[in-house]
Design brief:
This protein is an alpha+beta fold. The protein is built from two helices and two strands. A two-stranded antiparallel sheet has the order 1-2. A hairpin with a 4-residue loop joins strand 1 and strand 2. It is globular.
Length: 68
Amino acid sequence: MNNPNENTGLPTQMSDRWVLYVAEKLEASGKTNIANMVKDNPELIQKYVSAVDKVQGEINFLKLGSYE
């Protein structure tokens, strides 16, 4: 996951601010239904990170909590 980017204003990837940033980008591109769904229901957003372990042949999922 990427740290915040001061040059672009992009917040830390997968943070709560990042989710809202992405929703605003969706809205700006005309996808207002999806953007509004995200903005109006932040409690329903669940964030996961996945990783593939090719040696073990496993796919791992980590559920992220809420953070700024």
